[in-house]
Design a protein that fits this description.
The complex is a heterodimer of chains A (about 100) and B (about 300). Chain A is mainly alpha-helical. Chain A has one domain. Chain A starts with a helix and ends with a helix. With about 300 residues, chain B is an all-alpha fold. In chain B, about 70% of the residues lie in helices and about 0% in strands. Chain B contains 15 helices and no strands. Chain B is globular. The N terminus and C terminus of chain B are likely disordered. The chains are: A mainly alpha (about 100), B mainly alpha (about 300). The interface between A and B is large, with 78 and 110 residues.
Chain lengths: ~100, ~300
């Protein structure tokens, strides 16, 4: 059984690594196609926005705490632009809202 | 952390970039710890021990991917099913890797490509891609060293200790990663209103996908892929970019730049003859020219 688990892990880990590696192997030069280059430039913004909302609302036990963290994160990100400050603010807000509720 | 000040300080050495990565990796580490703790609990319920779970977290570093992996192992799935499910659940990393190739100095060592591929998670990618100019891979390695430590530690503790993390702690830690995402996508939106609109549209679409019957049955991994391709694709058609373009309202200069770029580059490509070495040299020169002054400033790294 445990040998099977390691074999399964190996297969899936290699699959996941291959997905991550292939673009690095095949895209070696700056991409000329203007649309594709622009597309890749916009990818992180869309991806991270899609992953943040509405998932942040259900990341904690209370929707209100998640919403408060979202608002705090937006404000602190707008003002400080500092990654660590934004992350810690969100955590702190969730903690405080948790104490109140 | 208080000494860092408000403005982004950019390191000037490889060691500096690594240290900067270690520091910026801390929020990811906290978020990963909370998520991987839950992952460890699932792994234990599926009959996996601490060593197996540790190996899994170290080799995969993929949240949804690992939850899928645990389910597949618990269900005794076959090889074909394991491979296809892994491909589908983790397909977004393919897009992220594509995107990050454009942040690499063409002159940097090929070894970095193999190492960076390992580092492509949502969060580490998000940080790496947000640096100005070319990415120094050591920055990504610094982030990864801290984050993956948290990821593996959380997994093992989850297996060993089960549900011991108090809910207030897991709640608080659970939003750290989202805060980080906001820190990446919001600041550029201040000066570039198109990106601001893009972020808003993306969030709205994501929310619609989570409430509309039918659409909400689509797994979150697929939702990310579909929305990314559609929205970023439309954005690229509406507002194509030039290299090093500053956020400028209106796009009067764009129609001029494209023909010039093509005129310059086409003649270079055609008269190619002779040895492979010459070919390679030429393509290197070309890519240096293509990426403009940035590469000249940051040259000399490998």
């Amino acid at each position: 059984m445990s040998k099977n688990i390691y074999l399964s892990l190996l297969i899936m880990a290699l699959t996941i690594y291959a997905i991550r590696l292939l673009p690095f192997l095949f895209i070696r030069k700056p991409i000329r196609n203007r649309w594709f280059r622009s597309f890749l430039y916009y990818v992180p913004y869309v991806t991270l926005a899609v992953m943040t909302f509405p998932a942040i609302l259900t990341a904690t036990d209370h929707v209100a705490a998640g919403a408060a963290a979202l608002i705090a994160g937006l404000i602190v990100a707008w003002i400080t632009e500092d990654l660590f400050a934004v992350a810690i603010s969100c955590c702190a807000v969730v903690f405080i809202v948790g104490l109140i509720l | 952390m208080n000494t860092e000040g408000k403005k982004k300080k950019v390191p000037h050495s490889a060691a500096g970039w690594f240290a900067y990565g270690l520091r910026n990796g801390i929020p990811i580490c906290l978020g990963y710890f909370a998520v991987s703790f839950a992952l460890g609990i699932s792994a234990r319920n599926a009959g996996m021990n601490a060593v197996q779970s540790f190996v899994m977290s170290l080799t995969m570093v993929a949240s949804a991917g690992q939850f899928a992996a645990i389910n597949l192992i618990a269900a005794g799935a076959g090889i074909f099913e394991m491979i296809t499910t892994s491909v589908i659940v983790n397909l977004r990393y393919f897009l992220m890797s594509c995107s990050l190739t454009q942040k690499l100095d063409p002159k940097s060592s090929p070894l970095h490509r193999f190492l960076l591929a390992y580092c492509m998670t949502d969060e580490i990618f998000g940080l790496s891609v947000s640096v100005d100019g070319y990415l120094d891979p050591r920055y990504t390695y610094g982030i990864t060293a801290v984050s993956v430590s948290g990821w593996c530690a959380g997994t093992v503790l989850g297996v060993l200790m089960g549900n011991i993390l108090p809910s207030w702690a897991s709640n608080a830690l659970g939003v750290a990663m989202y805060g980080m995402f906001l820190a990446i996508i919001i600041p550029p939106a201040k000066t570039n209103h198109f990106i601001g609109g893009l972020v808003a549209v993306s969030m709205l679409a994501s929310w619609l996908f989570s409430v509309i019957p039918g659409l909400k049955d689509i797994s979150s991994g697929f939702r990310v892929i579909i929305l990314t391709i559609v929205i970023a694709g439309i954005a690229a058609a509406l507002r194509p970019r030039e290299d090093g373009e500053e956020p400028v309202e209106g796009s009067l200069e764009e129609p001029l730049e494209k023909p010039v770029e093509e005129l310059l580059e086409k003649p270079l490509e055609k008269p190619v003859e002779g040895s492979v070495e010459e070919l390679i040299e030429e393509s290197v020169e070309e890519s240096i020219e293509g990426s403009g002054e940035k590469s000249a400033e940051k040259g000399g790294r490998s």
